[in-house]
């Protein structure tokens, strides 16, 4: 079976430093894979390479069999709805002056076709999918809590019907009680929608709880698969 995401021998250099040094892993359809490691080990760089936000110095990133690293932005654009990021800062990922429903309409329009009747209904559906009251669609980001904002971020990522979410420390900025709610939401989405997830975190316990498989990253290299010891 072909992997949904197949990363091979990824190398990223920053000046004289090798930030990723031959990183290889796969994520199968519907699988949640954790990537854990200490600060500066290259987790966000891996996410950026997978999302086509940086061009690696060597190696390949195949998504659904398509090699992404050689594609131009114009060629990547139609594929982006299928692999979507969720970032750490829930407020920073949203435009401060636009209502939540407008921010959800944006990816729906982008991935189109947008219809005046189905579009608003889809926004309600997305809000309900992430456990939010659809009435919150009328609010601005600063009128929501951090947890609610992160749920909107997840709803935006879901708008195009992705096959893969790349979640870079999605709950690190949240209070522990709110964090548990968002993690439960992610597990429900994984069960209900069968979306593949690459879940990046420095928090070993969270990753073990959520993921089918855990990869340890240290100094830009993967440690033995599934044997991250948290040290
Ligand atoms: N644009 C850049 N220019 C130079 N060095 C960079 C750049 N981006 C990242 N680095 C360096 O690459 C290394 C890996 O960074 P990265 O952000 O991928 O680590 P991380 O594991 O996500 O860390 P954290 O958990 O602190 O976010 C770090 O040493 C960082 O300083």
What do these coordinates show?
Keywords: ATP-binding, Nucleotide-binding, Transport. This protein is of the alpha/beta class and 231 residues long. The protein folds into two domains: 1-82 and 163-231, P-loop containing nucleotide triphosphate hydrolases (Rossmann fold); 92-160, no CATH class. It has seven helices and ten strands. The strands form two sheets. It has a six-stranded mixed beta sheet, sandwiched between helices. Strands 2-1-4-5 form a four-stranded antiparallel beta sheet, covered by helices on one side. Helix 3 (100-111) crosses helix 4. 40% of the residues are buried. Bound molecules: adenosine-5'-triphosphate.
Count of individual helical segments: 7
CATH H-level superfamily title of the largest domain: P-loop containing nucleotide triphosphate hydrolases
Shape: globular
**Strand order in space, largest sheet:** 6-7-8-3-9-10
Secondary structure: number of strands: 10
Order of helices and strands: EEEHEEHEHHHEHEHEE
- Measured by DSSP, the beta-strand proportion falls in 15-25%
Ions and ligands: adenosine-5'-triphosphate
Termini separation:
34 Å
The major pleated sheet works out as: 6 strands, mixed
Count of the domains: 2
Helix content: 25-40%
Going by helix content, strand content and strand pairing, the class is alpha/beta
CATH class wording of the largest domain: Alpha Beta
**Mean of residue pLDDT?**
92
Spans of at least 5 consecutive residues with low confidence: 227-231
Round the Cα radius of gyration to an integer and report it. 17 Å
């Amino acid at each position: 079976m072909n992997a949904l995401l197949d990363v091979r021998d990824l190398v990223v250099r920053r000046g004289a430093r090798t930030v990723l040094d031959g990183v290889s892993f796969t994520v199968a359809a519907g699988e949640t894979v954790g990537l854990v490691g200490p600060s500066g080990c290259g987790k966000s760089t891996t996410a950026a390479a997978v999302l086509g936000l940086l061009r690696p110095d060597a190696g390949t990133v195949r998504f659904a069999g398509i090699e992404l690293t050689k594609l131009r932005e114009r060629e990547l654009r139609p594929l982006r709805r299928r692999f979507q990021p969720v970032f750490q800062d829930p407020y920073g990922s949203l435009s401060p002056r636009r209502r939540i429903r407008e921010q959800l309409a944006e990816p729906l329009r982008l991935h189109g076709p947008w219809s005046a009747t189905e579009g608003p209904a889809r926004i309600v559906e997305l809000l309900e999918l992430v456990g939010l009251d659809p009435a919150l669609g009328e609010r601005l980001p600063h009128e929501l809590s951090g947890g609610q904002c992160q749920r909107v971020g997840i709803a935006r990522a879901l708008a195009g019907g992705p096959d893969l979410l790349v979640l870079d420390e999605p709950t690190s900025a949240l209070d522990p009680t709110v964090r548990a709610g968002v993690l439960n939401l992610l597990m429900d989405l994984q069960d209900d929608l069968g979306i593949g997830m690459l879940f990046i975190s420095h928090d070993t316990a969270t990753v073990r709880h959520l993921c089918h498989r855990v990869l340890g990253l240290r100094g830009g290299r993967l440690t033995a698969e599934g044997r991250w010891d948290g040290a």
